[in-house]
Amino acid sequence: MNAENAQNKETGVLDNIVNIFLSPREAFESINQRPAWFVPVLIIVVSLLIMQVATMNIQFQDQIEIMGIRAAQNPEAPQFDPSQAPPHVITIMKIAPFIIGPVTMAFMLLVISDIFILFGNVISLKENKNKNILLLAIFIVLIGIWATLINFIPPSFIPIMILLMIGILLAFSILLMIIDPKYKYMFSMIAWTSLIGAVGIFVRMGLVLLKKTIIGVTTSPAIFLKMPEIGKGAPILYRLLLRFDLFAVWQNILYVVGLAVIYKMSVKKSAIMIGSLWLIYILVMVFFNLDRFMGSPF
Questions:
Q1: Contact predicate 221/241, CB 8 Å
Q2: Which residue, 67, 225, 237, 290, is most buried by CB atoms nearer than 10 A?
């Protein structure tokens, strides 16, 4: 009996992996009955690590090139000569992406779950309406204040502001995990949807290996525009088109289906919510030019 149950459980996981691509509603119905996130998170972490191994030397050379160009643009900034750097510094530069990639991915899963729970509860639930509205209002005000301040503070304070935002978002995640029983369902849905991102990782890895650089590699319509000069700032059209990444669009379509299943709302209502949130995200990223705080070389 135990062997049979284990086999059924494994088959369910394999079915979800297939269905998330071919029959997403069926996958989300299964996930909503038995929320689980370990398998998809493991898959995307392994995908990230494979990409880092395959492109480690290319990324390191790109880092050196970017630092050299920026140093030439700003002679007063500290200069970096890789030939003079201690071995441990070079090792850290090569190893850092192996840590930053998975940590960033896990953090983004939490953030997206927070946002969808906060907005979904206000739109779909009748109980605890005032509490849900208050939580959403606090979240929006804090994000708005942060996004405004980071554009006016001295560069030396930017790391502190980024750490502050990470702390705020993690606090919201912990709070929602404690008080909202839907959180585990939402997090599981977001985690399974991230398998689309795993496919995108391998596509981008192929492009990086083909072009021998990670700079300017994208699966968005921005690929058809001239790549901006490093350190010069990307034009607004380039930043806008970057947001319409093929795999990001695909994921947002799946979010519509997943949200409709979790909240038992119509696909139309879910699409309006996801579409509105995505539009807000695009406007904030483009007009506040937040890419420059997220590792963009431009």
A1: yes
A2: 67
